[in-house]
Amino acid sequence: MRLHVVTGKGGTGKTTVAAALALGLAAGGRRTLLVEVEGRQNIARLFDVPALPYDEQRIAVAPGGGEVYALAIDAKEALLEYLDVFYRLGRAGKVLEKVGAVDFATTVAPGVRDVLLIGKVYEAVRRTQPGRGGQGRPVYDAVVLDAPPTGRITRFLNVNEEVVGLAKVGPIRNQANAVMTLLRSPQAAVHLVTVLEEMPVQETVDGVAELLAAHLPVGGVVVNMVTEPFLPGDALERASAGTLDRDEVLAGLTAAGLGRRSQATGNDTSPAALTTALLGEAADHASRVAMQRDERKELAELARPTYELPLLAGGIDVGALYELAARLREQGMS
């Protein structure tokens, strides 16, 4: 597999997962390219590096000497590059930019922007190093695309199918055909990121169905920001039923010397008040655990490889990305 497309509902951490996957795939001396297409410079912020130019930059070294490069694709630059490569326009492309044609094509003309973005990703996947006989090994062992959200991913990836229908001959049709061949081959897969909540899981289920209907290959499901239950199984059941022993909780708080009335605010934090609050929190926690159990069952019905990443208490920084990459390697995703 050469192209890993990572998508997910907003707020599920798809960029973080894409970054961790790129690190994991680079382990052991491999080279990966991490690509973003939404113009937000999220990769630069995650890796704590300056804003990425329209050029491939090394941003991290993976365990075992591998390398992670990054690219933020700019649609305007991609169009000028496309015009130069396929039509040898050169300076004429710059003239088109001056008169506003490039802005029109990349912001107004439907679908053109997505065609350019995917075309640049395709070029990175197919690019090879010079070798004997003319063709050498690929420049990148894998390309990871931080793609648009799940609700837009099928149309984004399938836009070249529409181009094939519109362009009957010529380089545009040939390029579109080549892109779709790659996207529908065993060399590519779309991974979906979710959290154990109803709306993200439902969007993941719908996304898988849409991708399969468009004959696009679905890879794995990454369940992100997973939390472990704070209470053992029997206590969770009693918390859900509201039958936790109030006297036992109250006795524990009293023995620990916790609870008093605040003189400054007048808030009642006596052991009795704290006991009531804790029992309410326990009931809410039990309800969340039960909901997560149900959402896991729904994801299991997709019959796709599933990977889990924990919610990290310290937040996400470069060190956290390496930790998440190791988790993905342990589970066999990279």
From TrEMBL:
Record-annotated ArsA/GET3 Anion-transporting ATPase-like domain positions: 1-180
Organism for this UniProt entry: Spongisporangium articulatum
Pfam families noted in UniProt: ArsA_ATPase
Top-rank taxon, per record: Bacteria
InterPro entries linked: ArsA/GET3_ATPase-like, ATPase_ArsA/GET3, P-loop_NTPase
Lineage: Bacteria, Bacillati, Actinomycetota, Actinomycetes, Kineosporiales
Protein's UniProt name: ArsA-related P-loop ATPase
